[in-house]
Amino acid sequence: MEIRDLHVVRGRHPVLEHLDLTIGGGVTGLLGPSGCGKSTLMRCLVGVQQVRGGTIEVFGRPAGSRPLRDRVGYVTQAVSVYHDLTVAENLRFFARVIGADRAAVDRAIAAVDLQDRAGDVVGRLSGGQQSRASLAVALLGEPDLLVLDEPTVGLDPVLREDLWSLFHRLADSGVAVFVSSHVMDEAERCDRLLLMRTGRIIADGTPAEIKARAGVNDVESAFLAIVRSDAA
Ligand SMILES: Nc1ncnc2c1ncn2[C@@H]1O[C@H](COP(=O)(O)OP(=O)(O)OP(=O)(O)O)[C@@H](O)[C@H]1O
């Protein structure tokens, strides 16, 4: 994925200013405080954000273009499955929409480890299970890129851990996973970490590299140190 000179204005304010970024395989984490532009950047990658300037290419095609429809999965912050349908009913419904077969439904449910709850109505599942059901929908088309906007928000540490393990299993199977979070302790789970602040990427590297560069032991301190040296 190649982003060049991306410029986005939302409302009256510039949100992303001349952003350049290349994203590859593995689990890439986008971390930064609320409002820094993470969702906006993700919306650009999936091609649903109006941009003022710049280019965004995914697998060599313009973001959002037709050939990418099955290749990019996107999970927004809101749970995007029907609460009054079961997990399996949701998956079968979305499979019909995108033309995926029955086997894809079973594979997606298995990938998020919801086989035991496939017959349960989504509204009666836990938050983490609901997030996994949304993720299963995104997996239906067997995407090569998964864009996940704060998928672990509001989940307890055990469920967050489960989801991160799932992201790594997906990445190991060849899916590029691009995931945002504003929880700094999740940073350690990323293969590559992008720290974002007010529409700019202020650090880019493995968690170990970023900590070493800042001379600190945790990503939160690294973030603060980088912000301070940036301001100085
Ligand atoms: N629909 C909108 N219209 C105008 N401005 C918007 C809109 N959505 C977001 N913004 C602004 O764009 C900026 C970036 O928002 P964005 O949602 O990308 O941030 P974020 O880092 O994803 O935040 P969060 O972690 O809270 O989801 C914010 O200043 C926000 O106020």
UniProtKB/TrEMBL annotation:
Taxonomy of the source species: Bacteria, Bacillati, Actinomycetota, Actinomycetes, Propionibacteriales
GO MF terms, alphabetically ordered: ATP binding
UniProt entry tagged with the keyword Magnesium: no
InterPro entries: AAA+_ATPase, ABC_transporter-like_ATP-bd, ABC_transporter-like_CS, P-loop_NTPase
Gene3D superfamilies the record matches: P-loop containing nucleotide triphosphate hydrolases (3.40.50.300)
Keyword Cell membrane belongs to the record: no
Protein name: ABC transporter ATP-binding protein
Annotated SMART domains: AAA
UniProt KW keywords: ATP-binding, Nucleotide-binding
Pfam families assigned: ABC_tran
ABC transporter domain residues: 1-223
